């Protein structure tokens, strides 16, 4: 080391030029000075997500917007910093990242949908920057390297795919950033209340359904239903249900019956089946109410909702015939009939009749050109996917396919995963989706 320094340092050569003595270069005898020592600066970039503020960045080449947004921990409201930056979307998003490091000195999680920006940020700490032709980009990179290298608190950078619809806080924040960065003509409709009104004009779902779908308050959802002229004829029944015995899970006990809808003309005989646990409804229009029509209806219902363990019907001739008994035996379904002439023996399906007819009446102004089968499909979509009750804010179709043991996967497939940073293969793990 000394010989190399003597050869390369002119000042040292001049100072020792006339020295005639002996030069000894050695470490002190203390063991502290004789051990090998490596000076490595502490890395500020965390390899794992931090329990800290999440900042989302995005940019648009069309609008030249450079966006960063975050949810305020105190108010739980979204806040944003938007600037107009000339250049490519990558340069604009890099400018947003620089502003994020300038604004937040505390630990942060940085989420970006640009793989380029995520790669630059992950490699910027203690980096040496060479001269580049783009002066604006050079200034941004220089500032980024300085801010990251002189941080006191750690940060975590994460890359996510843009325009994802996964239900998570990361996806929600990314959509918020996308909306802020989009041009005005492509920006999403900000008024959720107006979206709920438009949806209700199309489907006429009930108050709990609007609250569940659009996260409205009770008074907002009630105002939409109260001002709808089609919903003022008669009140929509809630999904709450009578006093008949019910299944403990979906596809355990069904009730099946026939109602008449005169507006369907030759297909006025509407066969209806309802799962007594989940409230999921299947209805089909037929030209009669004989055994063959009842069998055809149930086969269609089995293909949509699954095969129940037990079906309850009334004592009508369609359900007491030999052909119908052979049909249910063939499908392995237990058949029970109610008390003769009892108006409450089929209370659950009778309530479903009332609800189905009310939904059909409210949607009549938007289904004029539809066939009876299409009208029933739209009504069933509203009942099964949009409506719910205050007792259970999940729609019937969610309850139906989440509570039945025969409708669940007995075992999830095993998969291996690879860490994109270390390229290590880990697993096996159960597949989540």
TrEMBL record:
Keywords: Endonuclease, Hydrolase, Metal-binding, Multifunctional enzyme, Nuclease, Nucleotidyltransferase, RNA-directed DNA polymerase, Transferase, Zinc, Zinc-finger. Residues 191-232 form the Integrase-type domain. PROSITE patterns: INTEGRASE, RNASE_H_1, ZF_INTEGRASE. Residues 49-186 form the RNase H type-1 domain. One of its GO terms (biological process) is DNA integration. Residues 241-403 form the Integrase catalytic domain. It comes from the Eukaryota. Its EC number is 2.7.7.49. GO terms for molecular function: RNA stem-loop binding; RNA-directed DNA polymerase activity; RNA-DNA hybrid ribonuclease activity; zinc ion binding. InterPro entries: Integrase-like_N, Integrase_cat-core, Integrase_Zn-bd_dom_N, RNaseH-like_sf, RNaseH_domain, RNaseH_sf. This is RNA-directed DNA polymerase.
């Amino acid at each position: 080391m000394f010989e190399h320094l003597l050869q390369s340092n002119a000042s040292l050569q001049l100072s020792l030029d006339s020295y005639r003595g002996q030069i000894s270069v050695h470490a002190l005898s203390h063991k502290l000075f004789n051990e090998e020592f490596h000076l490595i600066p502490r890395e500020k970039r965390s390899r794992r997500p931090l329990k800290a503020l999440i900042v989302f960045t995005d940019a648009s080449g069309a609008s030249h917007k450079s966006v960063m947004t975050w949810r305020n921990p105190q108010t739980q409201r979204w806040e944003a910093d938007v600037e107009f930056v000339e250049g490519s979307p990558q340069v604009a998003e890099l400018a947003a990242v620089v502003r994020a490091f300038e604004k937040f000195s505390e630990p942060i999680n940085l989420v970006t949908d640009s793989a380029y920006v995520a790669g630059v940020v992950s490699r910027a700490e203690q980096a040496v920057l060479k001269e580049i032709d783009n002066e604006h980009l050079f200034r941004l990179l220089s500032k980024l390297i300085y801010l990251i290298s002189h941080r006191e608190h750690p940060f975590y950078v994460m890359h996510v795919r843009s325009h994802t619809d996964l239900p998570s806080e990361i996806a929600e924040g990314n959509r918020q950033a996308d909306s802020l960065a989009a041009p005005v003509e492509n920006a999403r409709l900000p008024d959720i209340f107006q979206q709920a009104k438009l949806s209700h004009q199309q489907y006429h779902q009930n108050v709990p359904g609007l609250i569940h779908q659009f996260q409205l308050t009770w008074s907002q959802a009630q105002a939409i239903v109260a001002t709808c002229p089609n919903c003022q004829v008669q009140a929509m029944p809630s999904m709450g249900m009578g006093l008949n015995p019910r299944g403990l899970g979906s596809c355990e006990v069904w009730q099946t019956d026939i109602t008449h809808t005169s507006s369907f003309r030759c297909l006025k005989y509407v066969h209806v089946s309802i799962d007594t646990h989940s409230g999921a409804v299947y209805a089909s229009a037929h030209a009669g109410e004989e055994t063959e029509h009842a069998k055809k209806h149930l086969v269609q219902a089995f293909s949509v909702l699954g095969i129940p363990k037990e079906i309850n019907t009334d004592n009508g001739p369609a359900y007491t015939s030999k052909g119908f008994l052979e049909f249910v035996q063939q499908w392995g379904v237990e058949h029970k009939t109610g008390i003769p002439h009892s108006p409450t023996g089929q209370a659950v399906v009778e309530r479903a009749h009332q609800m189905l007819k009310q939904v059909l009446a409210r949607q009549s102004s938007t289904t004029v050109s539809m066939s009876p089968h299409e009208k029933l499909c739209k009504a069933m979509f509203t009942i099964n996917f949009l409506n719910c009750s205050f007792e259970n804010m999940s729609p019937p179709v969610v309850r139906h396919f989440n509570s039945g043991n025969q409708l669940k996967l007995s075992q999830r497939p095993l998969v291996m995963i690879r860490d994109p940073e270390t390229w290590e293969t880990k697993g096996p793990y159960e597949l989540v989706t």
